[in-house]
Amino acid sequence: MIDCSKCSQLLLDFCEKTVNAQLALDISSHLEACNDCRQAYRKILEVYQILDQDAVDLPSDDWFESVKALAKQPALKKKSSRYFAWALIPAAAAAAMILLVFISRQPKTFEIEVPASFLLEDNDIASLTFKGLIDDELIADLNGLEEWAMETNEQMIFDMSAGEQKTFVKKLTEMYLIGT
Amino acid sequence: MKGDDDVILVHDIKQGDEQAFNRLFDKYRVPVYSICYRFIRNEADAREITQDVFIKIYRNISKYNERAKFFTWLYRIAVNTCISYKRRQKSHIPYHESIGEQHVDPESLHDKIIARKIIDEALMKLPDRQRTALILRHFEGHTFKEIGEAMGITTGAAKANHYQAILKLRDYLKGLI
Q1: What is the pTM of this model?
Q2: For chain B: N or C, fewer Cβ within 10 A?
């Protein structure tokens, strides 16, 4: 038998059908007996039902064909090496900022030996979120950091040629002594 | 299976086989457009982003590392392109009076339109990461591991973002519940 607290932690997993058979039976039994949890469950199901009605009107086949043809057209011009030199400045600045942010986020006591972001390696983080132990602010903080890093660096690196990427990594290694 | 087919198609594209790109495009055109539309909630913008995504895919296919699943690479490009586009457009988004608090009966046509607006508004209120996790999980049916790979975050973070999205939608959609 499970109580309301356990039930509320597992409710989304139950809706997602990611709990094992025994747990599913326990949750079902609890939902039959508990009006509050049953209401919470119904509200979540209604969210899923509303989302299910959210249809996407697709463009015509002709439009997709035109996109396909356009995608295969060669790029107009190759980026010059001068572009690369300029591109390296914000990329390197971004890398430096990331390092600074991570350095400044190092734990300040011996009790906590890993940076907060390492918590996200734990697959049970969702249940911690559900319990309210990990709040929106922390999630937003970590997401913001990841997004910012991805936006600034990844796109820049993505646009580089293999040679440019190699040079970039070499310069970063020299600047920040990565791996030493 | 899906992954194996993609590996062959990508291999052929890298060898210069345009037909292979056509097949890859046809396979992913609907999911990519759907992700873009659901992220940006505007048809014209979704079309522009979809076009950008496939141009990037074609021009950068040589950079795709075949150790990762192709669709996670593709979706990651789609999501990043959506995020960049949204940031660029932020200053041009017109102000709409919030209708999230209205209670509507989804049976009438007028109310269906309002219901659609409430859903649009609710989804757009979600942070980018939570919206992305919700789209990839609920609408595209991917596992949290795949979502994590596509978003460049851990499996746990993908799950947390999805759960946060559902919990928030429960409040944002109260006009419809």
Answers
A1: 0.67
A2: N
